[in-house]
């Protein structure tokens, strides 16, 4: 059975942050923005596609901007 986060909180705290901690152990040059985007892509490709290559895209950043987090929270709807 595959875990599917139903809320942004489940996604961020249950998936993204643990993934970030794991990746950081393997590659100290990893960027939080890159891990956030790739994890979002894995679970909510629809949202990742909407922010890809925009000002909200955190992929090349060492952090996830507040504006990006706010946008994702506002557009997150539970998956069926």
Count every helix, treating DSSP H or I runs of 4 or more residues as helices: 4
Oligomeric grouping of the chains: single chain
Number of strands: 0
Strand content: under 5%
Order of helices and strands: HHHH
Give the integer mean of the pLDDT values.
88
Cα end-to-end separation: 15 Å
Low-confidence stretches: none
Number of domains: 1
Give the overall form.
Answer: globular
Helix content: 55-70%
What does the main sheet amount to? none
Description of the molecule:
The chain is mainly α and 80 residues long. It has one domain. It has helices at 8-26, 32-43, 45-51, 66-75. Helix 2 crosses helix 3. The longest helix is centred in the N-terminal third of the chain and has 19 residues, at 8-26. The chain is globular, with a radius of gyration of 12 Å. The protein starts with 7 loop residues before the first helix and ends in a 5-residue tail after the last helix.
Task: Supply database-style keywords.
single chain; 80 residues; mainly alpha; 4 helices
Short description:
The protein is mostly helical and 80 residues long. It is built from four helices and no strands. The longest helix is centred in the N-terminal third of the chain and has 19 residues.
């Amino acid at each position: 059975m595959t875990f599917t986060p139903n809320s942004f909180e489940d996604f961020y705290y249950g998936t993204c942050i643990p993934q970030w901690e794991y990746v950081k152990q393997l590659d100290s040059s990893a960027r939080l923005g890159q891990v956030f985007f790739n994890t979002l892509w894995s679970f909510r490709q629809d949202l990742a596609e909407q922010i890809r290559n925009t000002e909200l895209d955190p992929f090349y950043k060492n952090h996830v901007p507040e504006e990006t987090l706010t946008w994702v929270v506002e557009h997150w709807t539970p998956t069926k």
